[in-house]
Amino acid sequence: MTINATNTGLGGRDSGLSGLQQSPVANRHLLGASPELRAPAAKSSRDTPELKEAFSDFVGQTFFGELMKQMRSTLDKPAFFHGGMGEEVFQSQLDQIVVERIAKSSANSVSDPMYRLLMAPRS
User: Cα dist. 83→17, 27, 89, 91, 93 in Å?
Assistant: First the structure.
């Protein structure tokens, strides 16, 4: 494929593209010739900080949330120092905040290895 510049239109002298000739071999990155050249770009567009944060939140909520729920189900109401209806209403919100903080503090040991496995290149 050869593109010859002309004096008018898109390839005119004013556009800065005069005398431009392109070949498929010289510009294979533009034409998408090999998958090996495109793989790093595809990985970098897929691997974003927002995705990593969402993955960490999901793992934390799923793992630690279920752990907290099972822990709460094993405890009985204490005879003294029970918060009554207010404690029952707000206990789930408190548990959610505790789960979020546990997930953030343990992300290096729990969700980061899982994220690396998820994003690992597959053959």
Answer: 76, 71, 10, 10, 14
pLDDT digits (tens, 9 = 90+) for 32-77: 444 444 444 445 567 888 998 889 889 888 999 999 999 989 988 8
pTM: 0.54
